[in-house]
């Protein structure tokens, strides 16, 4: 046990140590050292994770570590403790693994930034919180990480803090997340009061052992928890922060807003699968919201011109697919897609980062093109990832996406259709991105053209690793013979048996999905390669495209409904209610003043009158005392 | 020694005092001349003193008389100071009608 | 109830009391109604003397004498001096508004009725004037009480008088014009 | 050694500071406040070791007023809060020059004395005396050393003074009535033992409520707050918001609830509702404030609303969360006002629209400010989260809607605080130069932040300290 505690602490605290070193000494250490320390810290965590992974797979038993009491509530005692089981270690693997790669990438990518040490300290802090989120043994420790990663996201989106637009985006991300956090908190309150525990293990036994559960209340709890997941994992209606979050440096987008943090919602739902299993209505809600999100985000992604925005909407869309799977109780499928998605989306983001780096900050695809020759490694890795995300057979995305659609087909045909349409769109916009960026002629300025070059080894190396993973990642869960399902089996109460057999239906569906993906690619090929279309400039966009381009005006609607009304209310309160109340209080003073002024007039100064009144009063008092009894 | 009240009755003293006291009040209200007002006050004081002495005899106790003694001392002081104030007022205002003293007017 | 002495069978003491009471009330009234302040003062002296007579009647000789000295002597002289100093006479009298007079009379009646009503209402225990026979009001006894039991207030009375004296001197001193 | 030692040290300190002259005053004051803190820590040790450190002796016989200081866990926790914040507050003022410094620092110590007394007093009238005593120094501090137009300031400060005084009179009336019922005794145990009818309790509760609602402040009795916070010198604002507000909240737990439990139970929903209305209202008003200190004042309003709501739940969680949150809020609000002061020292303005772009010039200051902002919005890992979570949990036990509405503070709080942070600290580099924190300033911030983070992860010492006394109080509340 001692050993496990030390390992767990090592796992958590190394990134934190890296954070502290970079905060306090980063500037004096110099850029390279600072970056190396940051990377090493995460790499050590990765190594520890590998050790733990080894231990888990051999023993098959979860490691529980309890550090100390954290919060005491009458019927709840919340420990600060860790739970390292199959799920958390799996998550850790790609958090720290991809984290290390992205740290490595950042050393080169951020090298020109004067605040590099700060960047690395934030990244390390993020990894620290993400690890806490994943390995917490109860919901509240998860919540530390949950809010912590939100904070790091805030810090990193607003990393270039001189630009108030970026700061707005950061603030928006934080606040949107907090809306979800409130839901998560409320869910925790309900669960806490129902079962007197927030600890996963205890909770699981409590739910399994409970005889007459208050199911409506539990469903409410599940719904609240799902709202929390919506915030963090950017689902309708709380998804608008994620595209804006692209204001941050690209490695951040890759790490936080694609691979790790946004999957926290899926992690949480998977963690609490035993709660959600008991709330079928909520599961339906999750599935529907997931499907709608995936479709809506995909449609918006169709017309975006900012390379990172496309990827952002693609992320939202993919997350929607994952929730679709979660909604059907197919947790392992969702987890599978999380992993493959982490690989290819990280790769895509890093690749786009490489492109942006090569073009000195240009993000508009209309000003790119023909980069294939100048940046071959970037091109090939991104191509592989795009194939993966489009669901082209034998790339990782094919397996995971196919399983999701398969699950959907078994449960609900309409949602299956929605999911499939979203997948076709995904293939289309991804290849739209590829064609616009890497093929044809370069459309930027001459000077940019002059400076075009492939990025350095530190950037391309992570790209290559990720591309390999994106290609072969699917092997962990082949249809019919899934290592992942077996690995995760101890977590789930329901036995996922139905996907095991492969029949004609399944093969047909697979074929349909592949055809759909290829169809999407084909349309993109015709439109952007054959016909050589380039998206029009902003002013000329009209009709439906304009609606899509402006993201259905959701931001504007939210702004009008919530932000403006709250601000208007604030001004109203400040200018009217506050002054009104203040006047009321001063009014009491004024009334007293006025009474005194009127009372003053009684004081005529005539002693005779005073005496007369005095005698009358004397009479009254004396007769009251002596005669009234 | 025979108690004198056997022949007169305490109530007669009480009524005498009451009447005297009321005359004092009447005088205070009726006259505007500050000096006469003062005199009225003296009458009131004496009414009370008289009652004290009567009760002192009634109870065969000297306490009442002691009190009268003190009240005389206070009265003497009061009159002395009061008249000095009056003199001072007269010197400044040229009149001692209390109608002129309206500094208390709000 | 008001016990009106039967004049025909009145004892000497009763006659004296009635006489003194009449003088007291009459002169008190005259004090107030005299137009000339000096007359008022003189009536007041008579009134005080009659009260001293009451004290004597009640066998409080020491008090009677002190009363004469303090009131009829010191205080009245002060009054007279002041009046004369100010040179007041009838001409200074302001005409009194009717309302004031009415008010004064109303208060007079009211307070008289109230007080008398109280005394009647509270039914004083009349009769049974027992005499302990002890001497309680001779100069000797009073002196002992004053200087034993009431020594501190007695001393304070002296301080009071001293303060009054200083105050009077200060007040009546003519301020120097600057 | 007993708790009166602390009071004596503070009182002597106040006079010593006054007589030490303008130059030495600040140092002497700091010395005495630290001595008091040390003394309280020693006493805390004694208390934990089971030594009786309470005092009770007769003071005035007619009416029967005892000089009774009762040091239980709750009282000690509040005393520690007061005495830990006082040195920080004094130390934080080292960068400023004050006219007539000896009176200034003397008054600060005197106020600490009165507030400590309030937290310790176990006799109704003694408590009332301390309660009112605390008002006098802050009146002078705000009036004489405040900022802004003198007339405006006088208006705001006098309003505050009279308003709170008027509220306290209701409390005095209640105490007198209670002592009549308790055979002339004002002792808290005797008052606890009273069995009042529900009608009596209602009026007593209301009388207390006026005093406390104005002091805390609960809407709609808060109108004095923002103006006074703005006009008072920052030291005064820190004293007011850091400690004095807690007097009201503490008194709710110590006096109001146990003495009138029936009324508290009957009108539970109304008072929790008022607290939560304060949370939402305060947060919304804070959004569009132009003055930094005013914004912080309204954020205070929101936070204390939540604390009050927690206290009125009458559950152990609610009370405990309220106390934890009181302490956490005490520290964080002092830190935030100090940050406002640091900005004011350099830019001579607190107008949010005139600030911005400080981050590039003062990274250390920015980090510290950010941590305070995050603590204020109750990020997990900070002390405030522990309190806020506990309070919200207790609210959810009463009614889930309370938790949801009260929970809006985590959204709105984040909104106005980050909005403020963005406009004050971020953006294009400011044209005016902003020197980073000095050593003195850094120490003050570091201490506050250390406290917030330490207890954020390990609040057990405080929880263990306050729980027994809160349980006692709850027993009194639930005795029927």
UniProtKB/TrEMBL annotation, chain B:
<keyword id="KW-1003">Cell membrane</keyword>
<comment type="similarity">
    <text>Belongs to the complex I subunit 4L family.</text>
</comment>
<feature type="transmembrane region" description="Helical">
    <location>
        <begin position="67"/>
        <end position="90"/>
    </location>
</feature>
<comment type="function">
    <text>NDH-1 shuttles electrons from NADH, via FMN and iron-sulfur (Fe-S) centers, to quinones in the respiratory chain. The immediate electron acceptor for the enzyme in this species is believed to be ubiquinone. Couples the redox reaction to proton translocation (for every two electrons transferred, four hydrogen ions are translocated across the cytoplasmic membrane), and thus conserves the redox energy in a proton gradient.</text>
</comment>
<comment type="function">
    <text>NDH-1 shuttles electrons from NADH, via FMN and iron-sulfur (Fe-S) centers, to quinones in the respiratory chain. The immediate electron acceptor for the enzyme in this species is believed to be a menaquinone. Couples the redox reaction to proton translocation (for every two electrons transferred, four hydrogen ions are translocated across the cytoplasmic membrane), and thus conserves the redox energy in a proton gradient.</text>
</comment>
<feature type="transmembrane region" description="Helical">
    <location>
        <begin position="12"/>
        <end position="30"/>
    </location>
</feature>
<feature type="transmembrane region" description="Helical">
    <location>
        <begin position="35"/>
        <end position="55"/>
    </location>
</feature>
<keyword id="KW-0874">Quinone</keyword>
<comment type="subunit">
    <text>NDH-1 is composed of 14 different subunits. Subunits NuoA, H, J, K, L, M, N constitute the membrane sector of the complex.</text>
</comment>
<dbReference type="GO" id="GO:0030964">
    <property type="term" value="C:NADH dehydrogenase complex"/>
</dbReference>
<dbReference type="GO" id="GO:0050136">
    <property type="term" value="F:NADH dehydrogenase (quinone) (non-electrogenic) activity"/>
</dbReference>
<keyword id="KW-0472">Membrane</keyword>
<dbReference type="InterPro" id="IPR001133">
    <property type="entry name" value="NADH_UbQ_OxRdtase_chain4L/K"/>
</dbReference>
<keyword id="KW-0812">Transmembrane</keyword>
<dbReference type="Pfam" id="PF00420">
    <property type="entry name" value="Oxidored_q2"/>
</dbReference>
<protein>
    <recommendedName>
        <fullName>NADH-quinone oxidoreductase subunit K</fullName>
        <ecNumber>7.1.1.-</ecNumber>
    </recommendedName>
</protein>
<keyword id="KW-1278">Translocase</keyword>
<dbReference type="GO" id="GO:0005886">
    <property type="term" value="C:plasma membrane"/>
</dbReference>
<keyword id="KW-1133">Transmembrane helix</keyword>
<keyword id="KW-0520">NAD</keyword>
<dbReference type="InterPro" id="IPR039428">
    <property type="entry name" value="NUOK/Mnh_C1-like"/>
</dbReference>
<dbReference type="GO" id="GO:0048038">
    <property type="term" value="F:quinone binding"/>
</dbReference>
<dbReference type="GO" id="GO:0042773">
    <property type="term" value="P:ATP synthesis coupled electron transport"/>
</dbReference>
<keyword id="KW-0813">Transport</keyword>
